[in-house]
């Protein structure tokens, strides 16, 4: 194991050497609301793009919202001149995950970097997630209305199937348990038409196909969510892994991608109790599909600090105090052993027992109650097996949300919240 004190972007050199041959680098976060994680992840990502030629960033966000950001950062026709304006249009709660000053700064840098390069060499920004059923449906209508009006019927049939449930599609999931309410056949027909369209080149055709994949994934997700258990989690992470694969194919045989998501998605589930509970995640799937040497998984953690989160589902975000990590946890050990900021690169025969053995590892979602620290908010983890590297911030501060539009909380990500 190698330990490098972090004080400047150049201190990421040992980690950059470790990931030099990786096709995918996944960079996690222990919360969705810590400035330090976002800022350090931005610094690492800039170097991966500028120095190692990575082709895109794919985040734990909705495809349609992130597609507006992508059009801005690549300078596409009709794209917004300022990526922050696109981020401020994120409406789904919790908006602060991506509509924040830290992501805006990165996206402004990415646009400036891209505009100095030919169109075919520009790095994209994409969403991996599965929740945007209605937004993706609308995007398909907009595309087919201009490009292929003859295919509108398939989209309208799918829309009509979901329409009785309004935008509370969890009611669709409930109904599908008791009556023949499934929209699966209509969604499959829609997916087949948009896949056929996507065989021709063009970013708009690919985006329409991806939106159809979101609709199909969302239909499966909402049915699975009502049943409880690990299935809805697995549907979601499998959809994210499939989307990542499509992006790699889209960008070409030598494409390389960066993923931004919570540690619970990035860190290999097989090195945690998630596996015993029947859960998988995108980090595990990428290793299985691409081969371990082609994938680098980077986690984050801190001992204490402040975080932006919400006390209840759908409620306004607030800055909360994160108490010191509990005894015996990964974070308590790192607090005792590491400098204030450091990067740990795992590998080699001399790994200490405290990174190969199991210990509690803190995970804070968009809903957080610090009083649960004594019995919740931790995932037993074998650190050096779950990640290839780990970025440590002894004390993390709260990020800075943008004044984005907000809709009332919905069930879409409940109860996982990560």
Automatic annotation (TrEMBL):
InterPro entries associated with the record: Emycin_Estase, Hydrolase/PRTase-associated, UCP036794_erythomycin
One of the protein's GO biological processes: response to antibiotic
Protein's name in the database: Erythromycin esterase homolog
Source species of the chain: Micromonospora inositola
